[in-house]
Amino acid sequence: MTDPRPLGADEAAFLAAVRSGDPARFARITERHRRELRVHCYRMLANYEDAQDLTQETFLRAWHKRESFKGHAALRTWLYRIATNACLDFLDKRNDRTPVPTGLPGPDSEVLYLQPYPDRMLPEDPQESVVARETIELAFIVAVQHLPPRQRAVFILRDVLGWPAPKAADALDLTAASVTSALQRARATMREQLPDRRLDWRRPATHELSNDERDVVQAYMDAHKRNDLAGLTSLLRDDLRFAMLPERGTSSATAKDAVDGWVSGGLFQPGHDDWRCTTTTVNRMPAAVLYLRTPEAPEHRLFAIAVLHVVDGKIAELTGFDATDKPWLGVPPTL
């Protein structure tokens, strides 16, 4: 696997670490790539905890394969190759890592293993294509899961990371022609899966929340604190899509039907109407962290994270995640 570039300082330092046989020195050099490799694994797997595990597996494989690195490719390229193939091996062994039917009319399906990606764990360089908002939002991650694993890898390497076809082919032990064919099929599937309102994933990256998004997430939290069901209803589009993961049951509903469903499930009723909220961002999207205090509890306990997709000042998609027992989200368990 080669890149048309001279040996860089990173590669020279890595080769010296390999010759030394010092695992601590090896770890210091490879560690700087951890965050971007974890994002890469997350795009492949849609699950933050799996991505953590596979990133660690990448470093273990890299240590065992260290003698195979000759400096003909960038260290980063070599590590991405290992990470991609580690994810493909993982997917080969798991039959629970494919979307399942929603029960809704049409071809919709759910990704029950989807987890949010905390923005605080993204790579720090905002210019990196690896953190482009259009390629980390939940809808994009879900769409990628509809690709067969090898198509998925081709699509991410080519269209997200911008690798040329020969480089992607080398990483996956494929021909350039087969990579080009797989990419064409993957692009067709992605355009079917992504709603029309989504930006093209190959446009220049954006990172910041809009004023609309900030205003809507604040209004959403305020409505919870006041138990203002009319206010909450007014924030939702009538073609709202709602899911509470990892439970099965994505629904499309009018705003009124959605709120009525939450109320019939016990929320906003006496004993389940004392809310506190904070904001966060996951997957470069606005999110409300919801805390609920029940009569027997002395404090507000973490209830869920609601990730909002805002269109024209309204919530078009609301994805709720069980936030308990997930310290990597970086939110306190109580308020």
TrEMBL record:
Keyword Transmembrane applies: no
Keyword set, alphabetical order: DNA-binding, Nucleotidyltransferase, Sigma factor, Transcription, Transcription regulation, Transferase
Molecular function in Gene Ontology: DNA-directed RNA polymerase activity
Alphabetical list of InterPro entries matching this protein: NTF2-like_dom_sf, RNA_pol_sigma-70-like, RNA_pol_sigma-70_dom, RNA_pol_sigma-G_actinobac, RNA_pol_sigma70_ECF_CS, RNA_pol_sigma70_r2, RNA_pol_sigma70_r4_t2, RNA_pol_sigma_r2
Superkingdom assignment: Bacteria
Quaternary organization: Interacts transiently with the RNA polymerase catalytic core formed by RpoA, RpoB, RpoC and RpoZ (2 alpha, 1 beta, 1 beta' and 1 omega subunit) to form the RNA polymerase holoenzyme that can initiate transcription.
Protein name: RNA polymerase sigma factor
Species whose genome carries this gene: Streptodolium elevatio
